[in-house]
Amino acid sequence: MSAVATAVTLLIGLPLAWLLSHRRFPGRDVLEAVVVLPLILPPTVLGYYLLLLIGRQGPVGAALAAAGIEIAFTWRAAVVAAAVGSIALLIKAAQAGFEGVDRRLEQAARTLGRSEWSIFWSVTLPLAWRAVLAGTVLAFCRAMGEFGITLMVAGSIPGRTQTLPLAIYDRVQANQMTDANALALIAVGVVVVLIFGVSRLARLRY
Amino acid sequence: MRLLVALVVTLMAVVTTARAAPSPLTVFAASDLALAFQEIVPRFEKATGSSVTLVLGSSGNFAQQIENGAPADVFFSADVAFVDRLVQRGFIIPETRAIYGQGRIVLAAAKSAGPKLTDLRQLLEPRVRHVSIANPVHAPYGRAAEQALRAAGLWDSVKPKLVYAENIRQALQYVQTGAVEAGIVALAIASVPEIEWVAIDPRLHAPLNQAAGVLRRSGRPELGMALVQFVNGAEGRPIMKRFGFMLPGEF
């Protein structure tokens, strides 16, 4: 679930980060502010707005339901929740990375007749990969830890929308502390291994 | 990038195959049913050869989730009013609405908190620093707890000690772990080793009439109805009674 959310985040976040770092356009400041909103707003506010948007009676939810796709209270809602909660981390990290790339290198590629698309993949991204990787890992961890938005838009249905943090909350409520402990250890383990592994990886190369 | 695409494709494949399996009957149940359903649901699964996903929580939350499109098949509410509202708004099949019991509330105290509490008035004692109840806004047992405290003339004095739990199971868990000294919880889940309880006079609150119904969106309304009938039938009734529910026809 977190991996799918992170993949979605990368697909949407990288272009946005590139746009914010490379283009000046009207409304850029507004977009930048909107991008950071999920980090600042309480998850319950995000969850509430998302529910209004993708719930059965919401505009997006109703349109998709007409097309036979349900979002609210399905695994898709959990993915949306995790992506919304984590995307700002990726965008900010990637944006900083892209801005740190020497513009002259990109210009040089441009004089060689490369398309912007090709420049991004062969110049910008390889030079900024560390920032992107760090942002990705942070976003993944945030996605895995996502709780508030998920609870509001996806519920907590075991085997379907009950994510790891929700499962832990549920076990504690039921006073099943052994299960809660085991699940909490898994969560800590995954995150520690990831952060540690990535920082090793980042030091290995270059 | 290729790696990323591969990752996405694999995950999508995993997710879709997981969904291709016959999905279990999803049951939203008020959390006072936690213990009774632990016994009833496996029997129902054995009797029908189907599998059930049980989700426990506060009835008010479930009602709100159902109105927003939650994919449940059956809803066991701790308050008939939520079921009636969902019937009225077209989310529950009217013919499936069935009362399955009447709930009771008890005054529960953590054994670690000293001598057993026998009267609501004892909540005023200084050794009781916090009292947990379910959130009266959306949890029927929380509302009953508030009504009982008001009827006993204790609401204003106990209010500063109150801790609101998400649902009645969490209110119990606060007492079980000793996080609070006392709580007002459902009789149906009160018999756990860590606490002692006394019944609260049912005349102090509006009756907790509990009803179930099958959702209109359910793909298998017959199976859902079978569960409701199972709970109200020869196998379910003795179990419900043992967990302290008054049964339909008895109140």
Commentary on this structure:
- The complex is a heterodimer of chains A (206) and B (251).
- With 206 residues, chain A is mainly α.
- Chain A has a single domain, classed as MetI-like fold (Orthogonal Bundle), CATH 1.10.3720.
- Helices cover 79% and strands 0% of the residues of chain A.
- The longest helix of chain A has 28 residues.
- Chain A is globular, with a radius of gyration of 19 Å.
- Chain A starts with a helix and ends with a helix.
- The mean pLDDT of chain A is 88.
- Chain B contains ten helices and ten strands.
- Classes of the chains: A mainly alpha (206), B alpha/beta (251).
- Chains A and B meet through helix 1 of A and helix 1, strand 2 and helix 7 of B.
Topology record:
The complex is a heterodimer of chains A (206) and B (251).
Chain A: H1 2-22, H2 28-40, H3 43-54, H4 59-66, H5 75-99, H6 103-111, H7 116-127, H8 129-145, H9 148-154, H10 164-173, H11 177-204
Helix pairs in contact in A: 1-5, 1-8, 2-5, 3-5, 3-9, 5-8, 5-9, 6-7, 8-11, 10-11
Chain B: H1 2-20, E1 25-30, H2 34-48, E2 52-57, H3 59-67, E3 74-76, H4 80-88, E4 98-103, E5 105-110, E6 131-134, H5 140-151, H6 155-158, E7 162-165, H7 168-176, E8 182-186, H8 187-190, E9 195-199, E10 208-214, H9 221-231, H10 236-242
Parallel strand pairs in B: 1-2, 1-3, 6-7, 6-8
Antiparallel strand pairs in B: 3-10, 4-10, 5-8, 5-9
